[in-house]
Amino acid sequence: MRSRTRTGTEILLAASVIGVFGNLMLRATPWGLNAFLFVAVFTAAMFLIAIRRRPELLTPRSIALQAAMIFFASVYLIRDSIELRVYDTIAIIVIMGVLVLPNFGVNQRIAGVFHYAAGFVWSGLSSLFAPFVLLGADIDWKEMPGNRLSKSVFSVLRGLAIALPLVLIFGALFMAADAAFENFANRIVNFDIDTVISHVMLTSLLAWLTAGYFRGTLIDSFTRAAAAATSPIPKADDAKQEAKTDAGETGTSFVDKFAAEQAEDTSLPNNATVVEHINITDLPHAEVRTGGDSDAVSDEPAPAAQKRDWQNWDNTKFPQVFTLGRVETIIILGLIDALFLSFVLFQIPYLFGGMDLVQNTPDLKLADFARRGFGELVAVAFLVLPMLLASHWLLRRDNAKNETIFRVLAGVQIALLFVIMASAMQRLILLTGELGYGWTTVRFYPMVFMIWLAVVFVWFGWTVLRGNRNNFAWGALWSAIIILGATNLMNPDDFIARKNIQLMQQGREFDAYYNARLSDDAFPALIEGLRLMSAEDQCEAKSTMHYRYRELGQMTDLRTFNFSNRAAFELMRENDPVMHETADCPPYLQNTAEGY
């Protein structure tokens, strides 16, 4: 059996197991332990197949990325914040795209942003369409081991796997179309057809996507397959198979056939004798041609076929009109630098005016000043990065001055950008500070994003502007992984609730309804701060937290287990007498204390 067939069958088996496991685990919501176990099993299956069939893909970089996937999946087990779960899921999907690159011979550490984006797209396309290739081309079904009975059983199972979903779909449509047929089917099939269809569909979907992704990650990419198909040197397995085929068809052993071929009449070039041929002083492997001037020996090596280098893909293949020279670079970056400089100079009073400016400017409110400026400045910082990366990639390399000009203009732009980013952070501090309106998730996560952008731009200057562009994407990726990991450990909702309670103690207004509707991660801080709240805020917080208390009491499925949910439930049960102190609350808030 060919190695490709073995790998394909192992992928099919792993995908089937993951499909069934995912159907059993992921149907229960909200996700907790089940999501963590699913990602762990998915990663372990990919690791085991790689170590058996493609050990060269298991570099320290790939192993580190797989460990990061499991870490982000563990957030479903320890945190309840919806925002964190969304960002961690995005991180897992991005890492899955980067894990595809070694299959194309691309080193992840020195790959570019384009490679990461291409890997992300390829992983998605593979998940959707690669199973067709896996079933139709990668696996040679004639090589499947076993006797006729086992092959027949496998064919029956494969036919049932294809036919059953179709039978269920058409049967459901017929039952919906005719009441008599529905009663007949219900008498024969004594189970919920909708439940069966949902189980089959979810299992099939997870198995299909898993098989496609594993195929794109673990089986030779189309570039390597094409190179192998055009190689003039046959593979050892193919040669052995050809020898066995020849021996089986003719009944003659390979040795006998070789001896018979050698016994045939052969002639040397130019009808020379053996002694004359030995005395020819041609270079090894030189080509001897007969007839006229072609008798001369050709010392020139045959031209090698050009091989596409996916690792060092650059703009040399582009027409010159699509690249940037010295003039274009000066115009593009020079104009943008001038715009940034004019903005910084014109807005200096507003950028660094602080609370004095807000208080001394008529009709200027703090909320308008901070909210309007912060969002736009974050967008500017975000757009500058891809613009600089694209400009640097399109830069012509035929003149060293082009690179020098780019470094100077890009350095000026980054310096101006840091001034703008400092202004954005200053506005956020005003909005959330002692005279501001407190913290929310909408204000916290953009702050984390700005911190990451600052790190990335420092890394950009250290790598791209110093001629080490190949190291930029890998460092930017791991800076995002580390900052997002630190954010998970920081527990944002708990941070937000504690900061808002501190501002409340300093006389700022406290939004009890919003803070109580944060995730279960914030409940320890809220329960500690209940005694510090006003009577009205206490009633509002207890009402919302009681509603969540009843929800947690009904979550008994082990698959949805979450440490934050369990800690919040136990904490509220321990403080049950405090939670039921609602005598001074309005009647509609007192009713929420009933039940627990």
Outline the structure in words.
- By secondary structure, the chain is mainly alpha-helical.
- The chain has 4 domains: 3-220, no CATH class; 240-264, no CATH class; 324-490, no CATH class; 494-593, no CATH class.
- Helix content is 69%, strand content 0%.
- It is built from 26 helices and no strands.
- The chain has helices spanning 3-26, 33-53, 60-78, 82-98, 113-138, 148-177, 179-188, 193-218, 222-229, 236-250, 254-262, 274-279, 326-346, 348-351, 354-360, 366-393, 400-432, 441-463, 472-490, 492-505, 512-516, 523-529, 535-553, 563-574, 576-579, 587-590.
- α16 packs antiparallel against α17 (400-432) and α18 (441-463) packs antiparallel against α19.
- It is flat and about 85 Å long.
- The model is unreliable at 225-255 and 281-298 (pLDDT under 50).
Key phrases:
596 residues
- Poorly predicted tracts of residues: 225-255, 281-298
Give the topology string: H per helix, E per strand. HHHHHHHHHHHHHHHHHHHHHHHHHH
Number of domains: 4
Task: Give the termini distance in whole angstroms.
Answer: 64 Å
Overall radius of gyration? 34 Å
Q: Overall 3D geometry?
A: flat
Helix content: 55-70%
Helix-and-strand structural type: mainly alpha
* Major sheet size, sense and barrel closure: none
Give the strand content. under 5%
Number of strands: 0
Q: Count helical runs.
A: 26
